[in-house]
Design a protein that fits this description.
alpha+beta, Jelly Rolls, 2 domains, four-stranded antiparallel beta sheet, 15 strands, globular
């Protein structure tokens, strides 16, 4: 998802003390190590597929037991009125970092990431494309994760953020546009008190990962990348190859749609374009965020366009009593 600047503070202010009280009441066992083994990073799953304690991204989302124990976080979600995806409390130990990186995959392209600092200190620095901020407790921020970003906790205590992922919603879009219309220090902040919001209408994702990506979604993501690509060699030849791929994908979509009987054809199309782009040197085309075009196409489009279904567990034989 794109916003017009690296970091954007939304016109909302939440009760950081109430949030901190809820989080401190969670059991230590709720905190899981970072799935990528990044030192000093841990998290509490709050919204996950089917509410299970997992780091998975895909599947119908539901609150975990930890979220249900935090009524004010539910107030916040109800206030923003978005459709919620995988969300967590994210911890960063004193002196620890989230290394500089860019979020390239399909999940990141289709979601906003909202950060609400809960427990923090003035030496926590969030940097996105060179812009550095210290997010104050209770503030509400989003950022463009397709730009380079990193976090450093220079304080002596653990930092905890509530991190909510969402595909969006009309109210969130209005909050973003309101924030983009003024300078950050002129933003009119709205405080949201505990218990002041109707929580009955909180919505969760049911669909978030395509079985097979439609030709229209493929074209959308490819255009997003090509619009940013420099027009230097070998761009003209790469563009011809991508146009050929898009027409081929469109023909396959017209024939098979999302039916799994077309998977082998889709997989061959992806293997072919990967090989052609490799031979043509698409890795020499570098986007403004430092990511090569071939990597971006692979992670955003090819890896998500026709994923291989998980194998079905064998069913036990039925024994008929005689």
């Amino acid at each position: 998802m794109k916003i017009d600047r690296p970091l954007l503070k939304l016109p909302r202010l939440y009760d950081a003390e109430r949030l901190a009280d809820e989080i401190r009441a969670l059991p230590p066992s709720a905190w899981l190590p970072h799935p990528g083994k990044v030192v000093g990073n841990d998290a509490v799953p709050m919204i996950t597929p089917n509410g299970a304690i997992t780091n998975a991204f895909a599947g119908p989302m539901a609150p975990t037991e930890h979220l249900l124990a935090c009524p004010y976080i539910l107030d916040i979600m109800a206030d923003i009125e978005a459709v919620w995806g995988r969300s967590r409390l994210m911890g960063l130990a004193a002196g620890a970092v989230v290394p500089e990186h860019v979020d390239v995959g399909h999940y990141w392209r289709t979601h906003f990431r909202i950060h609400i600092p809960v427990i923090t200190n003035p030496k926590v620095v969030f940097t996105c494309e060179g812009e550095m901020v210290n997010m104050a407790p209770g503030e509400c921020w989003i950022f463009d994760s397709f730009r380079t970003h990193d976090v450093y906790n220079g304080g002596s205590d653990k930092r905890v953020h509530l991190v909510l992922d969402t595909v969006g919603g009309e109210k969130l879009w209005d909050l973003i546009r309101e924030a983009e219309a003024v300078d950050r220090d002129q933003l009119r902040m709205i405080a949201v008190e505990p218990g002041s919001v109707d929580k009955s209408g909180i919505r969760y994702e049911k669909v978030n990962t395509p079985d097979i990506m439609s030709v229209w979604e493929v074209r959308c993501h490819v255009s997003f990348l090509l619009d940013q690509a420099p027009r230097t060699e070998p761009f003209p030849k790469v563009l011809q190859l991508i146009d050929r791929f898009l027409h081929h994908w469109g023909a396959l979509w017209a024939e098979f749609g999302s039916a799994h009987e077309g998977l082998a054809h889709y997989h061959r199309a992806i293997a072919d374009i990967r090989a052609r782009l490799g031979r043509e040197g698409a890795s020499r085309i570098v986007l403004p965020n430092g990511v090569t075009l071939d990597r971006a196409l692979n992670e955003l489009v090819f890896m998500a366009a026709a994923p291989t279904p998980a194998p079905t567990a064998p069913q036990p034989a039925v024994v008929v009593a005689r």
